[in-house]
Input
Amino acid sequence: METLIIILTGVLVSVATYLILSKSVIRVILGTAILSHAAHLLIITMGGLKTGGVPILDNGHDTFTDALPQALILTSIVISFAVTAILLVLALRTYQELGTDNLEKLRGFYDE
Amino acid sequence: MNNIIAAPMIIPILIGILLIFFRRFTLLQRWVSFGGMAASAFISIYILNQIQSQGIMRLDFGGWEPPFGILFVADSFSMLLVTTTSIVTAVCLLYGFSSIGEKREKMFFYSFVNFLVAGVNGSFLTGDLFNLYVNFEIMLLASYVLIAIGGEKRQFRESIKYVAINVLSSFFFLIAIAYLYGTLGTLNMAHISVRVAEVGQTPILTVIGVVFLLVFSLKAGLLLYYWLPGSYSAPPSMIAALFGALLTKVGIYAMFRVFTLIFYHEPEVTHTLIGVMAALTLIGGSLGAIAFKDIRQIVSYNVVIAVGFILVGLAVATPSAIEGAIYYLIHDMVVKALLFILAGMMMAVTGTAQINRMSGLIRNYPAFGWMFFIAMLALAGVPPLSGFIGKMLVGQGAVEAGSYILVALAFISSIFVLYSLLRVFLNCFWGETIIEVEEKVPMKKGWLISCALLTLMIFGLGLGAEALAGYVSSAANTLLNPEIYIDAVLND
Amino acid sequence: MKINDVILHAVTKIVVFIIFTMAVYLFLSGHHNPGGGFVGGLVLASAFVLLFLAFDMETVRHAIPFDFKYVAALGAFIAVASGVGSVFFDAPILSMTHGYFVLPIFGETELATVTLFELGVALAVVGVVVTIILSIGEDI
Output
């Protein structure tokens, strides 16, 4: 199971890389969202996927699943949710203000 | 139980949240933020003195003992930085009162400054690697908003790139944390350090260390600084001053913490890499600082040079180099804030950012001109000012360690710093004045007061280096002997 | 062209209350079972979003006359305050406690301070999500 999830993570990272390298701002934002999902999957796989029961003592299990990775990805999901939201609002305002969502045209020009 | 060490993070968060309800009361917002910063500065100084008498303090959140819970650890190094952060932010706020403008103040500006400081202080204080990530994100989310606040075209253009690059580095941060957790099964920094020491720093751990190096160098602008000059020149000068003074320093702090506490067993790999990156940063930053005519770009590249210089201290890692790096870190926070504020004032009075279009400012504003001169000398490391002791100690440490190339590059970069700023000084302050007496923009009181305060701090840090020596050597001692930190966290 | 959205209106009026109930259920069950403030808040926010979609903004604004930015701030304040409050009981910050009380209708009930924190999280999530959706949706 772990191997499968790791491969899935790899697929997600490559999809995200492809999206991030494109010119459209919206694609880049989708890419960053997928990238964060890949990271979350990796964290939960690294903690071991299902090594036992629910980590509550009086449930009659001998082995327990590590609960920490789940707490970690919950935190990190909330954070990536906030970041994606900010990016979307920023992209919209940029589009309204500058009239383009093409990153090629958003290059900064120094010494303007 | 030391609830007080959470105060430098809790106070700004609470103030930031409460100020959202008082959106229309600008005056109240200003002075409450200022008061909060001043309060957390005093509390940090108090904690700093407590640490000297009773050793490293820690606070276990919710009473969960390490290594199981999240905790804050206050040692001299982190508290020195927290103190400087609070003071510098308070002074920047003074400058902001008269420069940021009513429009931005009504867009929850002060709330986000408070959140930014909360994230910065939290990153300095935390003793848990994942909590470090969370605090980084608090700081970054606030900075995403601050960089775009006000909504000018230039700001939007740069902010998209800034956010994208930081999301990418956060991704690497998470990946590195996942690998580390998979290998060692803990996230408490002291506990990680113990486990790394037990199993020895195997190649896989070194690779994880390099991933952390990548993350922090993206945040700090070590070699991977290509995003920095653009982003730091987009927002208004007060926000740029906060960014220049605080944000890169958090990356540097994290690098110091991780590579002295956790991954210190294979210095041939990690510290050599840091040394090479620092050298390249010094070269790149120096070239950038003299290449541009835009004052914002020049100042931003000076930030890059300072990052390279401080990490020379970490790369050689001798006691005097570490002490020098700490001195220089504190000095740099103060002087970069001053430099960005001065650059902002120059743009405000002349209405342009091009140095070849400014001239003779010193005739109109003598005090302003001389403060720029002092900041320039401090950055170059001229003796009675604050930059001197740091540069000397880093140089001495590097010579002791025999890294002559790094010494040479560090001091040549100082000459480039001096040259780039001298060029600004000669172009903008010397020569025929371009501002007529009638058109002269009056210098606002808040501008001069904040600059004067920072200039006084430069003198204070230079002349009062003896007074700081106790704190700095205690900080360097903790960095060089990880067992002190581990003892304080795990065994009491 | 005027869009005929009678069905959407009719369904929304009923479904919104089901979603509300679901949100409260998720929020309260979070103490021992899957659920909690974040999920409850998201579901609650989806109810508001459905309202905004079905009816136009002015109508909903008129019916729900508060600014969601302040809801988010209030939630964040409750969450932080529930953590900081332990200072007054001489316990480390973020300490939580619980106890059993006999209440008139419910009988013996477990009450925990975590619920306060979760309430703050839920309010913050509702406020933030609705604010984001409104600010994106407002000026297109």
